[in-house]
Design goal:
- The protein has one domain (about 10-165): Beta-Lactamase.
- It has about 170 residues and is of the alpha+beta class.
- Strands 3-2-1-6-5-4 form a 6-stranded antiparallel β-sheet.
- The protein has helices at about 10-20, 25-40, 85-90, 100-105, 110-115, 145-155, 160-165, and strands spanning about 45-50, 55-65, 75, 95, 120-125, 130-140.
- β1 and β2 (about 55-65) form a beta hairpin.
- It contains 7 helices and 6 strands.
Amino acid sequence: MSQILRALTVDDIAGVLTLSAAATDPMQVYAKVDALVRETVGHKFLTVLRFVEETQEVERLYSSDMKAYPVGGRKQLKTINKDHGLAASGEIFLAANEEEVKNTFPDHELIFSLGAGAILNAPIRHAGRRLGTLNCSGLANSYGPQQIEAAKILANLLVTTVLTAPKKLP
């Protein structure tokens, strides 16, 4: 059962685009998207990952829970079952409940300890290539069609921010 949240609006989208064009600190853009995800998609915690083609890794550019998932953390793609394969082709990945999360994510114990029982990953893509993912971790069975569409839009609003992120993070 999906959550009852507000709809993403044109004003929300315009606000992110305006901030993205003006902000010199990418964390401002990530924080704005984080707030919108909380209101329109729902999450217990949120991360933004960048795909690092040279090393076949994903690198965390943003985290709403820096203790559990610090910025700069990396994972080898081969340790992740299927969500990044879908991102490569531009598809949403959804682990809708605890069983699906457990079967997909090696760090499921940490995910559960943070109160999440579902993962919705929306690809961030530009010019036909994978840049990364917007990862929403929320309540089990909380992501329906409205939340998926909002996540897709919000992920696409991060293209410029991800493209211009420093190549070396702390």
